[in-house]
Amino acid sequence: MKLVALGDSTDVSLVDYVRLGYQRLLYADSDTVNLAASPLQAVTVKGFTTPHVRVIDVSQPSTVVELPGQVARLTDGYAITATPVPVYQSMGPQPPVRQNLLFAFTEEQAKQPAWIEANSPSQWHGAGNSADLVIITHHDFKGAAGTLAEQRASQGLVTRVIDVQDAYDEFSYGAKDPQAIRDLLARAKATWQRAPRFVLLLGDATSDPRNYIGDAMLDFVPTKMVPLEVLKSASDDWFVDFNDTGYPQIAIGRIPVQTAAEAATVVGKLVQYDSTAAGAGWTKSGTFISDTNDPTLRVAFTDETHTMEQHVPTALGQDEILVGSMDLAAARSAILSALDTGSLLVTYVGHGGDTSWSTSNLFTAADAAALSNGAQLPVLSTLNCLNGLFEDPSTDSLAEALLKAPAGGAVAVLASSSLTDAEPQLLLGTRFYDALFASTGVSLGEALMTAKTSDVKESVRQSFLLFGDPSMKLRK
Fold first, then answer.
1. What residues make up the domain containing 52?
2. How confident is the model over 116-159, as pLDDT tens digits?
3. What is the C-alpha to C-alpha distance for residues 350 and 285, in angstroms, rounded to an integer?
4. How far is CA 58 from the centre of its chain?
5. Element (H, E) at 432
6. pTM for this predicted structure
7. Distance of CA 348 to the CA centre of its chain
8. How many folded domains does the chain comprise?
9. 5-51 confidence digits (pLDDT tens)
10. Which positions ≥6 away from 254 have C-beta within 8 Å?
11. Angle at Cα 147 formed by Cα 142 and Cα 153, nearest 5°?
């Protein structure tokens, strides 16, 4: 078919569509064929390579029907003859369709399921449920989730472990969708007899949930990518921001693990942390690390560090590492030594990337993975950019490396998944410490949620995430 303009070069033709009707041979291509046939008119389709031929009437997708057919052997293969019956539209009294849509194929072409798995029905949408802490996890990590649930139950928290697949089954017809998790939590907040105060997402997520890149990382408990001031990045707060105001309504945290061994390691740290002896020496000190000042910024990192120090109790020792006053090798040595010694709190103020502090690899994810501070595990606050970019499918962020370090690291990390400005980062940090030390009974998640209800910039509120258990309390 060729469309030809009849006028000169100024001739313009606008074509809506072209419909071409033609007769075709009823002959299978690779043992499958789609065809149209009139009701009650027998049709014969040839060209099949095996006698195991089936004909399905798909005129009404909601009520497909398999037609009886007669298979005959021919010199060049097999043929099937079937007669479609009249099909009526599903809505109201309508005449039958003029032509039936049929699909013929051999059984060898039928798709087979990759696997079949028994489903245990759940009832998380029911109003009779109760929980203080909800752990949403992948079935690969339910062993570690159960261990943590027992630990929190022993501390008086009613804890429920929910398989993320149950959220999909109940709230998105089995389809994987972050919205299903949010809908489950909204239902729990609004209708459960005891509404949850804490939500822990136990499992890693990725910005490439369909695995277009082809990396091995799997999307165990998905996150939500939201548009922020500079980037579109992960914000787990979206799951509990039921009114879309930018403020979380339940304290939430994530443990972004990819294997059962990693889950056991991080949960083991949480359990061990709770058994720390009251008054242990390392719990009486805090380490404050300042990057080299950046003259392009309106505030100095050293000044911000001193401000953070003013928002912790005077009884907490304050060890400073001011990177701008020493060379890189000495600064790295001082940081590694301080982290391996152990502190209640570690605070870093400065520049950062997804796997490092500063612009000079002052402290890296590889350094974090090699820490040997054992059970002397700090809560680490990074007031910088991108240390919490956990959704990167190609590598672990610095926050992840600190959590998963096998011989030390951190028990919880506050970090950002995006690029944000230094001043609102500082405001969030000071408000977080104010809330954390305001009461002996406040948890990390509650303190962070309180900090985010202040006048903190929205992009900072949404991107700064808690990597750890939001129900955990600081050992003071």
1. 32-87+97-107
2. 988 889 999 999 999 999 999 999 999 999 999 999 999 999 99
3. 21
4. 37
5. helix 422-436
6. 0.83
7. 26
8. 2
9. 888 878 888 889 999 888 878 999 999 999 999 999 999 999 999 99
10. 200, 201, 202, 205, 221, 223, 236, 390, 465, 466, 467
11. 115
